[in-house]
């Protein structure tokens, strides 16, 4: 049965209950469009663009001190950058030691524009050896360093808190090797995720992770934060797909664990320490990752459900009937749809519903996949689990449907100041948190929305207000963390802890585990120069 026949049957089934809107053309905006293929070996910015500023930097411990970011601890007794330090950096990074405040500014501010550091130095190495020299020198001088990839983090982990030196990996963007038989890709940490995806697609492979920020985020940052994303249901987390890492340690040593073997049971698996460590244990400079084959058949279905209970039953049915071709199962609520309509002018592709599901299938046999999808849709409608829906098989329409899920974060930025929570919960509890938060806040919040990855139990709870509101934040926290802990959930599913959530770690980890983390940090970075004030709570020294 071809896909067009299946779609026709699906439409006739839906018409029994509610009018199915045909998939109409969606506005394809440049934000969601794929980048054209680029030469990853090219430097994204000519070093000639950067002219070192001659303004006077802090000398010794003198000079102005910036006010701490909200919730930040006091500045630790790190040294301040001197002219002698700059001379050293300029010697090893000619033209890539940036001190012009206008050029450093964007690297001081996080993606949400909620955190701003006061670093005066941006370093842009191209090679691992340069990173090693920088870190060794900074360790000897007791200079704090803030490793930075694409700066798309949401918890304040990617920008300085005070005047830490920013070490950008953006020029470390070379692909080192790709094995077309095993599918193992080895590349530098600064490669942009979308550029890697385009490189692999030309070779009939794909990356095992896909994120809404793929056009900016870098693979080193993805690994450092253990990013999850839209494909985790199918391909698992980076703890499984990353085969090896090259990491520069706090003393400048280069730890070469850049293996390209799927099985290696010799001693401790050290790379796992750095996956999700947020740059606090070492600077990731290269990654070896296992990539799956590009599917020959991809279908995306956008469905509407009347209740969250129906959504969960649809997920159970989906896993059972789609099996090996199921690659994503995402959801968003009606409040998300309202924001997409209002702020981004994205039209709802189906009738209004309390909940929406995005299902993706990917496989090797279009006929086989279409038949399985048809059988699932027929059963879902017969069981009254979904009330409306539409199917896309063409790439442009697939992108349009995916944009309804991927661009929720963008829509939220237009709704006001956003408080973001990235929670793991048992599946049956996921949306109850959204309901309880709305009741708890009453009219104090502008919007309370829920969306995320049903397939791996990850809720993105977002709350907006017209402006930054300390009273609203006090009502949200610690309520959201206490609620999560009562369900034995995790306060950070995939975004990390960074600066914003470091002190809430005890809601998800016992004190013994946190203490052991502190011991590991003290062993690998005894002076604490790597991404200070992040990940670990203030009471861990």
From TrEMBL:
One of its GO terms (molecular function) is FAD binding. Residues 115-294 form the FAD-binding PCMH-type domain. Pfam families: FAD-oxidase_C, FAD_binding_4. Keywords: FAD, Flavoprotein, Metal-binding, Mitochondrion, Oxidoreductase, Transit peptide, Zinc. It is an enzyme of class 1 (oxidoreductase). PROSITE patterns: FAD_PCMH (PS51387). Its EC number is 1.1.99.39. The keyword Nuclease does not apply. Belongs to the FAD-binding oxidoreductase/transferase type 4 family. Catalyzes the oxidation of D-2-hydroxyglutarate (D-2-HG) to alpha-ketoglutarate. Also catalyzes the oxidation of other D-2-hydroxyacids, such as D-malate (D-MAL) and D-lactate (D-LAC). Exhibits high activities towards D-2-HG and D-MAL but a very weak activity towards D-LAC. This is D-2-hydroxyglutarate dehydrogenase, mitochondrial. It comes from Parambassis ranga (Indian glassy fish). The lineage of its organism: Eukaryota, Metazoa, Chordata, Craniata, Vertebrata.
């Amino acid at each position: 049965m071809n896909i067009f026949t299946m779609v026709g049957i699906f439409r006739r089934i839906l018409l029994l209950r509610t009018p199915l809107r045909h998939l109409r053309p969606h506005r394809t905006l440049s934000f969601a469009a794929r980048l054209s293929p680029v030469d990853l070996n090219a430097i994204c910015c000519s070093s000639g663009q950067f002219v070192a500023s001659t303004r006077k930097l802090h000398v010794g411990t003198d000079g102005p001190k910036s006010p701490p970011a909200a919730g930040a601890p006091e500045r630790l007794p790190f040294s301040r950058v001197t002219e002698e330090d700059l001379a050293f950096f300029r010697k090893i990074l000619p033209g890539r030691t940036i001190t012009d405040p206008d050029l450093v500014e964007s690297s001081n501010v996080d993606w949400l524009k909620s955190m701003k550091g006061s670093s005066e130095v941006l370093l842009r190495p191209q090679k691992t050896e340069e990173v090693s020299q920088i870190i060794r020198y900074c360790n000897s001088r007791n200079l704090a360093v803030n490793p930075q990839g694409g700066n798309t983090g949401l918890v304040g982990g990617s920008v300085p808190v005070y005047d830490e030196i920013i070490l950008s990996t953006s020029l470390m963007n070379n692909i080192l090797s790709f094995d077309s038989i095993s599918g193992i890709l080895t590349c530098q940490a600064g490669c942009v995720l979308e550029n890697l995806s385009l490189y692999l697609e030309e070779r009939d492979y794909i990356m095992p992770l896909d994120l809404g920020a793929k056009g900016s985020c870098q693979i080193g940052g993805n690994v450092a934060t253990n990013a999850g994303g839209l494909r985790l249901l199918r391909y698992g987390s980076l703890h499984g797909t990353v085969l090896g890492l090259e990491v520069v340690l706090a003393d400048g040593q280069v730890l070469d664990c850049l293996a390209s073997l799927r099985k290696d049971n010799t001693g401790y698996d050290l790379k796992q320490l750095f996956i999700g460590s947020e740059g606090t244990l070492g600077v990731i400079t290269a990654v070896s990752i296992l990539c799956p084959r590009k599917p020959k058949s991809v279908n995306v279905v956008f469905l509407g459900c009347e209740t969250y209970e129906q959504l969960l039953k649809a997920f159970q049915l989906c896993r059972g009937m789609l099996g090996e071709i199921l690659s994503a199962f995402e959801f968003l609520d009606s409040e998300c749809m309202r924001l997409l309509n209002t702020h981004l002018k994205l039209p709802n592709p189906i009738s209004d519903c309390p909940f929406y599901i995005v299902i993706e299938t990917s496989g090797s046999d279009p006929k086989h996949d279409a038949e399985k999808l048809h059988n699932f849709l027929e059963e879902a409608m017969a069981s009254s689990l979904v009330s409306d829906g539409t199917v896309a098989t063409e790439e442009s329409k697939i992108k349009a449907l995916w944009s309804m899920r991927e661009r929720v974060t963008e829509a939220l930025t237009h709704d006001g100041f956003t408080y973001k929570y990235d929670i793991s919960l048992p599946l049956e509890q996921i949306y109850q948190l959204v309901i309880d938060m709305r009741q708890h806040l009453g009219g104090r919040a502008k919007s309370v929305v829920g969306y995320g990855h049903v397939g791996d139990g990850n809720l993105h709870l977002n709350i907006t207000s017209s402006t930054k509101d300390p009273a609203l934040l006090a009502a949200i926290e610690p309520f959201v963390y206490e609620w999560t802990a009562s369900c034995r959930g995790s306060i950070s599913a995939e975004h990390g802890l960074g600066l914003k959530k470091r002190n809430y770690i005890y809601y998800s980890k016992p004190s013994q585990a946190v203490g052991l983390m502190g011991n590991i940090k003290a062993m690998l970075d005894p002076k604490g120069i790597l991404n200070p004030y992040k990940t670990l709570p203030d009471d861990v020294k």
